[in-house]
Amino acid sequence: MEIQPIATIKNDFTGKFGIPRQSGLADIKSEIIFEDNYRDENALRGLEDFTHIWLIWGFSENIRDKHSLTVRPPRLGGNVRMGVFATRSPFRPNNLGLSCVKIEKIENGVITVSGADLMNGTPIYDIKPYVPYSDSHPEAAGGFTDNNEFNELTVCADDEIISKLGDKWDVLKAVLQNDPRPAYQEDNGRVYGFSFAHKEVKFSVTGDILTVLEVCDEQ
Hints:
The chain has 219 residues and is mostly beta strands.
């Protein structure tokens, strides 16, 4: 079976580093821009009555010729191997991802959503409405994720940095609180950097305190 993208995602993340590990962890606004063949408002008729949708998308930056059947989940510190089908690792046989996001608005054939864990330009292969009566299972067991929550960090930044980011600061702060570093790296004082909202963000972590060191325009 061959599949083609129906849309792409547009948001402030131009690189993989810093993107939330799961959907819904940060209130990131993204736009779903449809390909020409699907840019028809009739295809979205009725979607306005739903609050959430499922996105089926591709890990377009993780293409590999070979795939391992075991991976090292970040929640286990990157030191324990689990079966790939027991994880949400991006390194999968068919490179497909699944995310649940909230619909913010539908306008002129563009869906604006919040909570996406996708990089800018990620191809979307299908969209399905989230149906609470069948998709929600509050009693479900979460396997190894139930007992391995990520530590939430305290984020610090001076007023000048916060001012530079404007209305993007709250989103960036939520991303940083969830500790974007690889789970196996806890180098106190090491400087990390990633692109966000056309700016380069640099930070370091000491203990449970994350300090934003610099925010500058991308070159």
